[in-house]
Sequence to fold (76 residues):
Amino acid sequence: MVHEHERDYIRDKRVANSEFRFLDDLDINAELFIYQDKIAQVSFEPDNLKGVLIQDKEINKLQNIIFDKLWKIAKK
Fold:
């Protein structure tokens, strides 16, 4: 979950070729990275970091569809 001060920091950081959006109703201490034909899921639970890497074109396609739907409803 991104807190307001973190959101402000992200907005103030000028990251070239990047845009950020936020979903307020999520309380998740994890990240999802979609790139090439891979999906990386990382949990940032204190004292118990975990990650999963999936390399599959169809699962990547599905994850991109879900991402696009959420992107459309997320706040800038």
The CA atoms of residues 13 and 76 lie 14 Å apart. Strands lie at 30-35, 38-43, 50-55. The chain has one domain: 4-73.
